[in-house]
Protein 1
Amino acid sequence: MAGLTETHHAVIPRPASIEKRGDAPFALTPDTHIVAAAAGEEATAVADHLAALLRRATGYPVPVHRGTARPRPAILLALDSHRRLGAEGYRLQVARNSVQLEAKTSEGLFRAVQTLRQLLPATVESTSTQSGPWTIPAVSVADRPRFGWRGAHLDVSRRFFSLAEVKRYIDLVCQYKINVLHLHLSDDQGWRIVVDRWPRLATHGGSSAVGGGPGGYYTKLDYREIVRYAAARYVTVVPEIDTPGHTGAALASYPELNCDGRSPPLYTGVDVGFSSLCVEKEITYEFLDDVVRELAEITPGRYLHLGGDEARATADADYVRFIDRLRPIVRRHGKRMMGWEEMARARLAPGTLVQYWSPATGSEPGTAPARRAVEQGLKLVMSPANHAYLDMKYDRGTPVGLSWAGYVDARDAHDWDPAELIDGVGEKDVAGVESALWTETIADLKDAEFMTFPRLPGIAEVGWSPRAGHHWEDYRRRLAAHGPRWEAQRVNFYRSAQVPWP
Ligand code: NGO
């Protein structure tokens, strides 16, 4: 294990166990092969993914062989069902002559590849050929995640992000073993996914953005492509349609969804909490049934997020009635529901995931929804705004972002424990963690990158790494080594003064 004063690697999230071996480093050369000993196409796809990555910066051919023949020097990927590594765990052994990656599943192999990348020099992340040497220190890693849910939320409603931009975001976050992409697909300012039965949602509701900026929406083909691209990186897409509030774009598109039968204009401001679907009208539930059905059809993941936050324009009793009606709709279409913490005010089905976002801690009043969720036997995904909201400014000088939950610098993103934040919420109640990037103040992907890095790696480490050994001093030295990796990938990151960048 890396001690406090002796960091010999810069891997983030910190592996459960990583030890130096008494051997010379492995060096990639023009002769290096990758051997996919693991049976099955998925493991071979992981090998191909690694090969493509290595070819880019080294310029070496890095051929991939299937089967057990073992040309030397080689990087070997193998599936080993006997090891108790869990679905995402892996072992990685680096010696002078070989690199071995073993996991129970191809998903575990993919996580191992992310570790391997980070053991190589930063220039391996370049998109053009660089000169080596391409050495990997001789280490032995045994790793598995603390929590199964390590999400990244992206608000594509307030600002629309193109297919290419979403793919880049996936590519950047999956390096930190993020395994969920939560797409906030609808809000007051924009509806971003085609629903065939309600076409104006996208064509009208998706035609604008915050500040009146250009809108956009995903066709079902686009969405399927995001799902496919994410799945190839072992990231599950969780789509969110926010209800019953944050529904301005839908209300603007269809007058019949409004209680008074009249559509408001498209909203381009940044206020929250003023819109609501009409809880009394039957057509509201026909609408939701169509939306949930069509979204379920193109979403292989288990969860659909139905929002539920800040429904200040919905009376309390109406809110509970609304969730009572929503519950069977989600079940009918074969999915489980996820919702923001407010949803725990209502009765929820077993298996529903509740997403905590309040900055409240201990037994402060703001923690009550979390306890209500736990009392219902439900698990929480933790996104406390003062640690995990990537739209908060780093400090007073940050040119974009909000500050209602305070400033969140690199240390705040790393220095917290999801199982110790709230009285009555322990390890067994936590499904995992998720960063949230709301985009009211974010103009484009460059801004999004600036707010994501260097904070997301801290949240990812909170979600993946063992509780023991969680030290800011050790972490910030490892984090510093990621600056050059982001430079190589042309990531627009924030040079936090808390981090000793090289
Ligand atoms: C809140 C609100 C969002 C805002 C965000 C800004 C939740 C769950 N609802 O978080 O609509 O965009 O704050 O920080």
Protein 2
Amino acid sequence: MEQCLFCKIVDGKIPAEIVYRDDSVVAFKDINPQAPVHVLVIPVKHVAKLTDPAASDGKMLSQIFATIARLAGELGLEKGFRVVANCGDEAGQTVHHIHFHVLGKRRLNWPPG
Ligand code: AMP
Ligand code: ZN
């Protein structure tokens, strides 16, 4: 079966600007950044969407959020940042491998579009 785009990035089959990786989590720069800092944090394991039962794996989620917290320090986001996870078509999910957008280094409006 054809691998999804982000599984290909995990496997190094397509290039990405990786900012962090370990056995469970990979973080890389978004190819179409919406803020001066825009990275995507993903599990190595393929899980298509947040409503899949596998997305509720507490260990996986804690590894993702520990990575986000560490990156916030490393990327200079002490003034604030936003974490976004789009789920489903209406929310604009275009890549069906769960991912957490981390956006920062600009004023972020609320509500989002
Ligand atoms: P979403 O719309 O929430 O599914 O987010 C998918 C994100 O993946 C978008 O912000 C895209 O810009 C980003 N993206 C798509 N292809 C790549 C790629 N090859 N490398 C890095 N980011 C990508
Ligand atoms: Zn995948």
